[in-house]
UniProtKB/TrEMBL annotation:
It comes from Reyranella aquatilis. Pfam families: Amidase. This is Amidase. PANTHER family: GLUTAMYL-TRNA(GLN) AMIDOTRANSFERASE SUBUNIT A, MITOCHONDRIAL, TRANSAMIDASE. Residues 27-456 form the Amidase domain. InterPro entries: Amidase, Amidase_dom, AS_sf. Belongs to the amidase family. It comes from the Bacteria.
Amino acid sequence: MPAQDFAGRTVADHVEAFTSGRVAARDIVEGLLERTRKAEPFNPIATLDAEGARAAADALDERRKKGGSFGALAGVPVSAKDLILTKGLRTAFASVTMKDNVPTMDAEAIAQWRAADAVLFAKTTTPEFGHKVLTDSPLHGITRNPWNREHTSGGSSGGAAVSVALGLGPIAMSTDGAGSGRIPAACCGVYGLKATLGRVPHEVPPDQFGQLTYLGVMARHPADLGAGLASMSRSHPNDPWTLAIGREPFAWPDKSGGHPIAGKRITVIRRMTGGYLDPDTEARLDAALAFLDRQGAKIKELDGSEIDWKLDVARIILRANQIERFADILKNRRGDLDPSFARTLDEGNAIDVVQLRRALVDRTTAFKSVQGLFADCDLLLTPTVATPAPPATQNQFEPLVVDGKPLGDLRAAWYTYTIPFNMTGHPAISIPFGRSKAGLPIGIHFVAPWYAEGHLIRLAQAFDAETGASAEFPPGFAAGT
């Protein structure tokens, strides 16, 4: 069959082309596989399932010949991070200790995408068990930035971000535990959405009530975030947060109406804790503020250092969960682990009951603090990260260095902006908004009240109409090349 390069096309374009009979699903898959081979130097793919994708596409083509009906993602090639369970397709968690693991079931969100007739073609790279905001592992190596291979893709959903940036399908399923979806989206110049706690079922982690990790969506086009989210937002009986919503699944297109910017009260926080902000990043933030002002927003600035964001709370809760899950692996197979993951687990071992008890209470304090901010605004705006992507060889436990000057711990110096909202459950999005003088993407970060994902996506559409970010490809990867 003739390969069809659908890179840069929206979800709706894929679905219409397939369901109308203009293009076979198999042709879309063959074009995608050609592009995937071209992307190999950037290392976004953990496990490629070419034959599985071909078989799924052929089955769709047969159904279409018979006049069957189709789901909302019919014929759309999708990928999923290598932390998300996929039936019959290796889920290694980027770990040598799990390199032969083939699940017998799908995570519910994957099952919902499959039921919507998406074609799963690959698992994308992540650090071991998603433990850091950089994407490298002993099993899969380094995943590199699509705009400059000397820089990181961010993480832990780095492979998902690189895949979307290079045109390997219009949407990718990510995870986000402290910004792990939004950070690589900013580093790679794509859109990354973390929905409200409970919007998307995430029934696999053992601590359901202490959940900090979310399944998210990355996309080139903002509307595709809506298409992906709408097809993965039905509740699951083993995820109490999805049951708590007590409402219909997320619907797209959003019907709430009204301009996403005009008249909206936006609180800007340049620095969460008073730390360093890269001049190019700040310049792009100022440009975003100018755009918002022209669109009629009501803007005010807030000194982030006035708020106790309880940033260490997320670390304590995450580490406690990690050591509970992986203590046996640490004890019995430490030598097979990424040293930075072993060190992460050691941090978990050092947490005592007093710290954990305090953290659980402080999580509620953090939630109330953010709720208090929304009493006076409709949206929060921050940078996504303090600088463009660090070097590809950045170590999680070494300082962030800019112009030869160490700025301190990577967590405290680079990605304070995303962490609080995993604790508080608020939806958040990273929007690509230009590049640095060195050509690296820069992202801005909006946070909204619970269940306001539709507003965030419509906001992203307004920004995309201004910037044309959805049409931009890294060198050599434009549609048709």
